[in-house]
Amino acid sequence: MKQIVKIPSKQYFDKAYKILIDGDVNLRNAKYDYYGLNAKIFSSQQLASLMEKNGLTKRYKISSGTSDRFAFKGYINQVITDLKKGIYYRFYSLSKGDLSTRKAISLMENFKFFKKNRYTEEDVCMTEGSTGGISMIIEYFKNTNPADEILIISPSYYLYKFTAEYYNLKYVELVSLDKIKPFMFNLELFKKSITPKTKLIILNRPNNPTGEIYPEEIVRKILMIAKKNDALVLVDELFFELILNKESATEVDAIASKIDVLDRIITVKGYSKNKNLAAFRIGYVLSKNRKLMASLARIAEQRQCFSSAQNYTGLICLDSFIQSVGFYTKQNQSLTKAIAILKQKFSFSQIIFEKSEKELKNLYLEYKKYFNNKIRYYSDTYDMVLDLFGKEVEMILPKTCAYNTLIKLKGLENVNFFDFCFNLFLTTGIESQIGPCFAFDQFTWQKNPAFGFWLRISYSRDQEMFKEAIIRLIEFKKIYLENKDKFLKTNIIL
Ligand SMILES: Cc1ncc(COP(=O)(O)O)c(C=O)c1O
User: Fold this and answer.
1) Distance (Å, whole) CA 308 – CA 277
2) Top mutation candidate among 207, 272, 284 for ligand 1, by most atoms within 8 Å of CB
3) In the 3-class helix/strand/coil scheme, how is 204-231 assigned residue by residue?
4) Ligand 1 — pocket residues by CB below 6 A?
5) Which helix (H) or strand (E) holds 350?
6) How far is CA 327 from CA 136, 193, 321, 364, in A?
7) What is the 238 CA–ligand 1 centroid distance (Å)?
8) Which of 21, 178, 285, 420 would staple 133 via disulfide (CB 3.0–4.6 Å)?
9) Hey, whose CA ends up nearest to atom 15 of ligand 1?
10) What whole-number distance in Å separates Cα of residue 329 and Cα of residue 365?
């Protein structure tokens, strides 16, 4: 087969190195962690221009945490209609967000409690994506517990530790290194990591990047330990709707409600991943903790940056309605009856009130079709990626949640991870994210054989892109290992 990957010239690598140190990446003066440095490299204009001159115009985002799929047309149409009518955008919202939005979300979120209405609109705060929620919660923790610790169940989304560092808070990353089930939650280790100062535990469920869902029994134990230690639990359920086998999982707040610890947990959700609307920045915090909710409202108020969710009131009410229909029909209600009952319940929302039952039914059915197709596409992409990597895979984490997984690639034990990924990028245009983006640092991942070279694959991305990228990655790996001297050696270990 014709070789696609060619080793670039020494001159090209020298120029890239100069940009890395003194150009717009500016390593000489700037300080980065592993994740931050790579994010900077992938957005460097100077590297982009150098690569383009070398014929590399295409980027392969194999690890990037967004989807290539479009959002549901019904939602986009709703936003367009609302914008044209000018219903929402002219006004400021309340500091916790528009009332009908919060009402709709609390109604939808209550269905999992089976007729016990746990949440009201007072327990919902709209935020700038779930990022806004996470950063406000950690800011709250900084105000209330400046000398206490955060325990992050890892590997996990970088933002938790990034924000903890920003607020100068002490945090511990908990990673289980079991050889057979790497990264899967270990209760004994968890218990050992708790100190009297652990007052915030962060649980990302399903986990990004491992996809771990954490069984109900484990969640109960985490919650009971949190209660005993008088700690709050921040539950990031951004990916929950994307769990492939939804019957196998119950939301943490539903579990907490059963054991009477609902006031201990703070749930964060958003529309970036499950609805493919990352740039709309819609997120929300759900909590029965009054002190926390009052603080979030104050933080939003003093920052004067209320959530832009106000613009999407129609979309959010419609989505809450559609999700609620899903719950109702699961409980053996006929679809027609579910629509009729819920139209009444959601009558506070102008856009639901205005739509006929027929229109709402069609929207529900279209959404269901759209969503099932999307999930099938993601699931097929996981299988396809695994197939394309073939013998290169030493281990892969199971397909549990449509989006991310970690794959351990063979033969990279003795390479400098940064150099491998930087050369991969400069040679092929592939943007990769590996272990140290999600816990600890590069040094720890490299020196400990139980870690190794774990690559995040976001199987929400385009299948055609993966077909091209994985051929290039495999070819690159072979050429790199056989010709290390011809590639750039920075010896950076972050
Ligand atoms: C686990 C997790 N939580 C939160 C976020 C933040 O997402 P957003 O602010 O778009 O809601 C991300 C983004 O990748 C994520 O992976």
Assistant:
1) 13
2) 272
3) ECCCCCCCCCCCHHHHHHHHHHHHHCCC
4) 65, 129-131, 157, 204, 208, 236, 238, 270, 272, 278, 283
5) helix 350-354
6) 30, 38, 10, 12
7) 6
8) 285
9) 157
10) 12
Query: CA–CA distance from 324 to each of 104, 317, 331, 379 (Å)?
Result: 9, 10, 11, 25
What's the confidence (pLDDT) of residue 250? 93
Atom of ligand 1 nearest to the CA of 272: 10
Question: What tokens appear for 324 in the block?
Answer: 């609620």
Q: Please give the pLDDT value at position 309.
A: 92
**d(CA 476, ligand 1 centre) in Å:** 31
Atom of ligand 1 nearest to the CA of 282: 11
- Sign of the torsion formed by the C-alpha atoms of 175, 178, 181 and 182: positive
* Ligand 1 pocket mutation, candidates 131, 275, 404, criterion most atoms within 8 A of CB: 131
Question: Would you place residue 215 in the very low, low, confident or very high pLDDT band (cuts 50, 70, 90)?
Answer: very high
* Angle formed at CA 441 by CA 437 and CA 447, multiple of 5 degrees: 120
Which pair of structure tokens corresponds to residue 304?
């004067």
pLDDT digits (tens, 9 = 90+) for 56-69: 999 999 999 999 99
φ, ψ of residue 203 in degrees (nearest 5): -125, 120
CA distances from 183 to 78, 178, 204, 413, 484 (A): 41, 7, 13, 18, 31
Question: What residues are paired with 266 via a beta bridge?
Answer: 234, 287
Q: Which residue has the tokens 């050889």?
A: 179
Q: Which of 137, 237, 273, 405 to mutate to test the pocket of ligand 1 (most atoms within 8 A of CB)?
A: 273
Supply the DSSP symbol for 94.
Answer: P
